Amino acid sequence: MSDSAVTPDTSPGRFRNLSSRLLLLTVAFVMLAEVLIWTPSVARYRKTLIEDRIDRAYLSMLALNSLPETELNQDLENKLLQQTDALAIILNTPTRRMLMSAGDMPPAVDLMVDLRTESFWSLIMEAFDTLGQTESRVIRAVGMPGNDPDATVEVLFDETGLRTAMLDFSWRIFTLSLFISLITAALVFVSLQWLIVRPIRRMAAGMARFRENPEDETRILKPMPRSDEIGTAQMELAEMQRQVHGALKQKNRLAALGAAVAKINHDLRNTLATAVLVSDKLQYIEDPEVKRVTPRLMKAIDRAIDLCSQTLNYASEDVLALRPRSFCLRDLIEETEANLESSGGQTRVVWEIDVDPDAEIVADRRHLLRALHNVCDNAIKAGSDKLTVSAEISDDRIVIEIADNGPGLSDKARENLFKPFAGSSRKGGTGLGLVIVRDVVSAHGGDISLLYSGPDGTAFRIIIPSDISPHPVALARGDTNKVA
Ligand SMILES: Nc1ncnc2c1ncn2[C@@H]1O[C@H](COP(=O)(O)OP(=O)(O)OP(=O)(O)O)[C@@H](O)[C@H]1O
Ligand SMILES: [Mg+2]
Fold first, then answer.
1. Which of 8, 98, 171, 356 is disulfide-compatible with 208, CB 3.0–4.6 A?
2. Ligand 1 atom having least distance to the Cα of 378
3. What's the CA gap between 376 and 469, in Å, rounded?
4. Do the domain assignments include residue 255?
């Protein structure tokens, strides 16, 4: 994707964007890792410092021991102690015990450190203890010098020097860690920025551009040639945008076609109305051939007018305005029966109505009548001679079931159920009847579903909530098949 393709600024504020967060997190994690490394290091460093003192103390004792008795004096001992940085030294060997002290008596001891028995954890605890001290303490450290395993040396020294060395060590580690973490963070930042943040930002900007005008084909994202997850995401996004763009284009084309069909229908209906008037006169002609074909001609024209009207109605009804009121459901079903009877051709149909005659429901009576008419009309036109209409009315919903003993839905009707113009498998059918039923039921906040269909008959179930909204409801014109 080119940079020029990215116009809208979709970046969030400073420190809230991905890059800044990654930068801060990287610094924090590297520092945390350094703290974890520093803790045992500083404990070990303290131990090394004490061992070093013990070794030096041992060497001082050896030096003292090698001198003749006559040369020994307090000044010399003080000098040796100063060089060893000790207040007193005691050397224990299997044969003798020697003391070297600045005064007659060694100073009082505040803390005893026996390196021979120290564990990892006790070293860590003591290191923290030393770092946390504010007053100087005298430590008595006991250990074995490196080059004489038989000897034991005890050194008394002031803890201040030890603490200062440890603080220096910690400061060095801290500055080094900071340096490492900044370098690492910068590297991680740059690579993440390059690999993830920039492509994601471009994708977000590409989405925003596409959203502004999905009909503009040039706004479809051009995926980068990457084989990783980001590349896949970009490819999928581009594909999705292509599909949305295509669907929109097709919808617009269909809308234009629909408008044209509506205009043609309108004019055709008027022309057909004139044809009805003219053909009415044919019945007065005595010619037997004219008499024979006239009813068929009239029927064909009626069917054509019906088709035009239905299509026009469907195209113009974008919003179904409900006018709910309370009425008797059984009366409505009986009216449907009467209407279908009067429209002729179904004298043999037996109606079984299992609905409480006192039950009142709240709905749009006119629309519901139309919906029931369409469902029952289908059953009769399919060849059923028995229709069972039952209803259950509870506090929260009304369930109406319409069952027939017809031949069942054809495969085409079943596959395209509720799809406008597509589901009709009946000669002269428009394929709008069930779509209208579904629209009416949806506008009431309800649902229609096919309960069953087979050679023994078909049943539909309509469910409408008891408390329907009195506001206009947009028609749901999806292509969903609804099969219970
Ligand atoms: N009870 C039923 N028994 C058998 N087939 C049915 C039944 N109800 C619907 N169908 C089938 O479903 C198709 C679609 O019905 P729909 O009412 O949507 O359209 P139509 O009846 O063909 O046309 P119209 O728009 O004039 O009603 C019908 O053509 C019919 O084949
Ligand atoms: Mg129908």
1. 8
2. 8
3. 26
4. yes
